[in-house]
Amino acid sequence: MAARSVCRAGSAAGRALLWGPRPSAALLTLTRKRHAATYAQALQNVPETQVTTLENGLRVASEESNQPTCTVGLWIEAGSRYEDAKTNGAGFFMEHMAFKGTKKRPGLAFEKEVESLGAHLNGYTSREQTAFYIKALSKDMPKVVELLGDLVQNCALEDSQIEKERGVILQELKEMDSNLADVTFDYLHATAYQGTALAHTVEGTTENIKRLTRADLISYIDTHFKAPRMVLAAAGGISHRELVDAAKQHFTGAPFTYKRDSVPALARCRFTGSEIRARDDALPLAHIALAVEGPGWADPDNVVLNVANAIIGRYDHSFGGGKNQSSRLAALAVEHNLCHSFEPFNTSYSDTGLFGFHFVSDPLSIDDMMFCAQGEWMRLCTSTTESEVTRAKNYLRNAMVAQLDGTTRVCENIGSHLLHYGRRIPLEEWDARISAVDARMVRDVCSKYIYDKCPAVAAVGPIEQLLDYNRIRSAMYWIRL
C-alpha cells in the first residue's frame, strides 16, 4: 500500500510538472545557453596563458582553471637531433635514468615520494624535445615543482642503475623492431635526411646503448639541460604567481646559471629524395611511407597542409561506412580492397618537415594503392573543391577544440608551443587561420610542396610489387594536354 501511495504521489507530481505553467521560450533559450556553450564561446572562454621569463632564461607558463588537479611539466629543447653518431641514444637513456633517483632522493625514494602524492609521473623524448611531467592535486603544485627541479638538476646516475637500465633499453629496442610502422618511419627519416642528425633514431643504436657511459650522460645533461632551452608549463587549478615563486626557489642550481649565448646552434638538415627498401617476404603485410619535404613549425603553410590532409582523410579496415565515406581515397580503398589502413601525416621540425602518407597493404595491392594515393595528391594540386575544404576545416576545428580536454593535454600544448613558436598561439587565432583557407590556397600550397618534387620512400615487408623509384617519381606530376 505504501509503495502504491508513493507511485501515485510521483504520478501526481509528474502530471503537475507536465501540465503546469510552461516556461517562456526566452527562458528555455537562456537555460539551453547556460548549459551548452557554442563553438565561438568555447574559443573565447579559454583562460589566458600567462608567461614569465626568469633572470636565468627559464620560461614559466601556465593556464589557470577551476580543476581540482593540475599537470606541471618541463619541456626541454633537446632530443636525438642534438646528438651525433657516437652519442645517439643519450637523450633516450637519460629519460630512463631521470626516474631512478636523485642525489637528494636516492634509489626508489623519488618514485615513492611521487606515489605518496597520488601523482602520475611520465616523460618522453623525440627528435627535438624532451619532456617530464607530473599530474597531481592542485594543492601539491609546489611539491611537484620541487620534484621536477630535483629531477633535472640532481639526477643520481648511479653506475648500478645505469647498467640495470641498459638491459631494459636493449630489450625495448628488440620490441620496437617488431613495430613495423615505427621502423618504417625511422627508415623514412634515415633516407630523407641521410647524413644529418634528423636521420638518427630517437632511441639510438644497439651499439651505442651498449657503449654509453655515465660520463656521456653527464655531458649530455650539462650541454643541453639549460634554463633558456626549458619551459616550465602548468595547467589546472594553480596560481601563476605561486608557480613562478616555486620556480625561483627550485630552479636555481648550476644548470640554470647559463645564459642564452651558451646554447649551441642547431645544424641544418637537408632533405634528400631517395628510398630505403627492407624486403622480407616472410611478413604478411607491407608498410609503405612516402613523403616530400614540408615546412618547419612556424611556417603558415602548415595550416593549409593540415587542411589538405583532412581532405585525404584516414582509413582502417575496422572502420564502418564502406565506400560511402567522405574521403575519396578511403572509398577507393574499400571498393577495391587496396589496403588495410592508411594515414596522412605532417611532421614538422624547427626548419623542415615531412609531409606524406603511410599505408599498410597486402603484397599484391601495393602498386594499386600507391597509384591511387599519388593520384589523390595530384588531385589536391589541381582539382580541390570548396566543399571538400569546408568539410576538412570543420574536422580540424573539432580536433582543435579537443585540445581543451584534460590538464595534461593543455600543459603539453603550452610547453610545445613555447618551444616551437616562442608563444602559445590562442585557439581563436588558429580558428582564424583555418577559416582563411580556401580551395585555391590548398591547390597552390600543395603544388608548392608536392607537384613535381622528388619524394622520400621507405618500405618494409613483402614489397616486391613496389615500383622502381623512377616510376614513383614520374607519378609526382600529370602530363596534361
Automatic annotation (TrEMBL):
Keywords: Acetylation, Electron transport, Membrane, Mitochondrion, Mitochondrion inner membrane, Phosphoprotein, Respiratory chain, Transit peptide, Transport. Its main location: mitochondrion. The keyword Membrane applies. InterPro entries: Metalloenz_LuxS/M16, MPP/UQCRC_Complex, Pept_M16_N, Peptidase_M16_C. It is found in: Mitochondrion inner membrane. Residues 59-205 form the Peptidase M16 N-terminal domain. Residues 212-395 form the Peptidase M16 C-terminal domain. GO terms for cellular component: mitochondrial inner membrane; protein-containing complex. GO terms for molecular function: metal ion binding. It is a peripheral membrane protein. It comes from the Eukaryota. The keyword NADP does not apply. Component of the ubiquinol-cytochrome c oxidoreductase (cytochrome b-c1 complex, complex III, CIII), a multisubunit enzyme composed of 11 subunits. The complex is composed of 3 respiratory subunits cytochrome b, cytochrome c1 and Rieske protein UQCRFS1, 2 core protein subunits UQCRC1/QCR1 and UQCRC2/QCR2, and 6 low-molecular weight protein subunits UQCRH/QCR6, UQCRB/QCR7, UQCRQ/QCR8, UQCR10/QCR9, UQCR11/QCR10 and subunit 9, the cleavage product of Rieske protein UQCRFS1. PANTHER family: CYTOCHROME B-C1 COMPLEX SUBUNIT 1, MITOCHONDRIAL (PTHR11851:SF116), METALLOPROTEASE (PTHR11851). Belongs to the peptidase M16 family. UQCRC1/QCR1 subfamily. This is Cytochrome b-c1 complex subunit 1, mitochondrial. The gene is Uqcrc1.
